[in-house]
Specification:
The chain contains four helices and 31 strands. By secondary structure, it is mainly beta.
Amino acid sequence: IGGGVDAKHAYASSTAGAWSWGALNDSLTTFTERMRLTTAGNLGIGTTTPLQKLSIYGANEDAVILFVASTTKGVHNEWAVGPDFADAGKFKISSSTVVGTNDRFVINGVGNVGIGTSSPSSLLALTQAGVTKSDGVWLASTDGDYRSMYMNNSGVMSFEGGDGSTINTATLNAAGAWTNASDRSYKENISDISYGLEVVLRMQPRSYTMKGSGLPQVGFIAQELEQLVPEVVDGEDGRKGVSYGNLVAVVVKAVQEQQAKIDYLNNAISSSGIWRLESDGVLTVTEIKTNKLCIGATCIDEAKLQAILKSSGVDSSEVSHSSVSIDPVVITPVDDMPPIISLTGDSEIKLKKGDSYVDPGATVVDNVNNNLGVNTIGADIDTSLEGTHTITYNATDQAGNKAKEVSRTVKVE
């Protein structure tokens, strides 16, 4: 099938079942093939051996496909798709007649994908054109709810969106600090919480190991916490989670309630001026009225006291506030509570043979005595030999109460 000069030298031929399309020179003696359809159904442009259903070969940028829509339908009516040989052969989709101009999507030779950038340095690299929610990544549901993730020029990443008309923004700043959306404009039905000290005392802090990672953790069990503060627990059974940040409000309320009780006691003490309780447990008063006074195992009542006064030659009827000056009575309460020892650092430490070891020690607190000190046994460890060592810590207060001994295990491997 062919055409002469008047047909612009178009020419098609068939050889062994394969069709070729091309053009003849002006003398109609030389045929230049432009396109071929093989017997396998593969169509080649710029090649006589197409490997796929459509194979396009070209020199330099001739392998680009250009899509052009009606010029009256918008600004970006031209799209070029193909490799950019001027840029290391990257595959590009560009809103232009050529790749390399207005690149919108790029894949480089190692498979990195770039959107908004022609030089992706990771598997997926996105570069914003601006610093608003429309410049970031959107995830939207079928009903129009969305969440947008974008970053400003100060390195603050914002997560904006919400449910319908309820739009809020949480941020992650350049220092790695997370800020929850908490503006008053996001909230309604604002009131004081009812949870406080009583609820905090009923909470059960737990230690546990996360399945899969094997790492030790501390925190709460969602189902247990849900019985006390259901607002901080979300999800169905088997997938429940805890909003630990929201627990801060509960703890703050508990601290406020506890401080109110402390302030009440302080006010009662300072306003009366007739009694005082020191930090060391000594109670000072100007007058005591009681039916029986006990010091240790010795107790005395009014009758016994009168007998003592009589035997001393003192008429008890003459003992009164007006006739006898009585110094303030100092009562030291009985201390029967032992100190409490807490380890500093981990209870189990692993060392490599030859490592140096400095024991982190332990701390002790007591209800009466301060600065008791902790007696440490076994902290001098020879790390040149493999083995397991146990370090023990104990303490005794001035009343003779012994703390519950605690220990630390050190393994040299």
